[in-house]
Design brief:
Helix content: 25-40%
Shape: globular
Largest sheet: 2 strands, antiparallel
Structural class: mainly alpha
Strand order of the largest sheet: 1-4
Strand content: 5-15%
Radius of gyration: 19 Å
Number of helices: 5
Number of domains: 1
């Protein structure tokens, strides 16, 4: 999984669990589960995304898909049918954001649950091995997830006078 995929996964884990958020705040990051990876030179470290950039991702998902509204809503009192209607709307709009802003592409062209070969010299930033990998590649296994990468990152222009920590301002109808 690439850096974006890892960050996205971490984002959802933190958002969904107070315990997970606490672990990240305290610097107790999850252990890597990758085994038997080939040695490779470390990639150059890109500039860190700022807090403002991270919040802006939420701004776009909220503005276009109302994702934050949906996730912050307590849905326990709603029927499955009511939740399903909401999910379809949020899903369609947020999926459009991903397509417009990131051009999400699979990292592996295989079909999940198919047998695949992990070749010698594979890029461990793109393929995470799990289970009991021993010896040297090539490895035979089952594709559990295709992985994702951002083909581009192209956000709408931010207005410079807005508070970069505000996802959506409160609205008051007069």
């Amino acid at each position: 999984m690439g850096r974006f995929g890892t960050a996205w996964q971490a984002f959802w884990r933190i958002l969904g669990s107070d315990d997970e958020a606490k672990r990240w705040r305290e610097g107790k990051l999850p252990e890597a589960t990758q085994l038997a990876e080939p040695k490779e030179e470390p990639a150059p470290v890109p500039p860190k995304a700022s807090v403002e950039d991270a919040v802006y991702t939420l701004v776009v998902l909220q503005r276009e898909g109302r994702l934050i509204d949906f996730l912050q809503e307590d849905i326990d009192g709603f029927s499955d049918a009511q939740v399903g209607v909401a999910v379809r709307q949020v899903h369609a709009r947020c999926r459009k954001v991903l397509g417009d802003c990131f051009d999400i592409q699979p990292l592996h062209e295989g079909t999940e649950e198919d047998r695949v070969t992990v070749p010698t010299g594979f890029d461990s930033r793109h393929i995470r091995l799990s289970g009991k990998a021993t010896g040297e590649p090539p490895f035979e296994g089952v594709l559990r997830h295709r992985g994702w990468r951002a083909g581009k990152v192209d956000f709408p222009q931010r207005h410079g006078k807005l508070d970069p920590h505000v996802i959506q301002p409160a609205e008051v109808e007069i």
